[in-house]
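Protein Entry — a single chain follows
Next Lines — sequence and tokenised fold
***
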Amino acid sequence: MVPTTSEIIDSKCIYDKEGTATTSRFSSLRVGFFHLSSFQMNDIYTVYVLYSSSHDKIYIGFTSNLISRFHSHNALSKKGYTIKFRPWIVAYTEVYSEKRLAMNREKQLKTAKGRIFIRENIVPLFKN
């Protein structure tokens, strides 16, 4: 079963198409820290939450390359929502083995309930 917004996800899990958690695809991923090591990027999709403490804003997205996407949000982009609220930090991540699952989770986190979950459980960890 794919995790719901009422659960805080173990950051060392990857979810397969059945929603079963496994740790076989990577050795380290930490929520709130940009620490990825021994990570196999093939067929890995990351749902992420960015937080801008200077503006108290959140951004929810998904990508197949978190490092590149994070760099894009903080430095490369010349237009869009995230440029207005820099700098961003990666406050939360979930890793999936299928794009469809990552897209569904991103959509779920973007709902009112998902944003409440993020504001109540994740953002307080990064408030100044």
About this structure: The helical segments are 66-76, 99-109, 112-121. The radius of gyration is 14 Å. The chain has a mean pLDDT of 78.
